Amino acid sequence: MATAPLLKQSTTGSLERSIGFFTATCVVIANVIGVGIFTTPGFLARDLGSPFAVLSIWVLGGVLAIAGALSYSELGAEDLAQIVKTG
């Protein structure tokens, strides 16, 4: 079973090197997030000096992220209920 190639081939037989705007944007965003994730814990550990304090901050951040996600989901559900009533 033959499949279509994932990358375009040029007339010379080598792969064409091209990258679109969307792919370039995704690469830049991934690099920014990756740098933040890998460097921030080291700075926190150095400044706080206690592994318990670092873990406590990460847990607090997780609780705040969940609270924010639940708030947005509640707002979305309320908006959807309003649309269904008037629709």
Helix coverage percent:
over 70%
Structural class: mainly alpha
* Shape call: flat
Strand content: under 5%
Topology order in helix (H) and strand (E) letters: HH
How many beta-strand elements?
Answer: 0
Please give a structural write-up.
The protein is mainly α. The protein folds into two domains: 30 residues; 37 residues. It is flat and about 55 Å long.
How would you concisely characterize the structure shown here?
By secondary structure, this protein is mostly helical.
List keywords for this structure.
2 domains, 0% strand, 2 helices, mainly alpha, flat, 87 residues
What is the fold's blueprint, element by element?
Elements: H1 21-48, H2 51-86
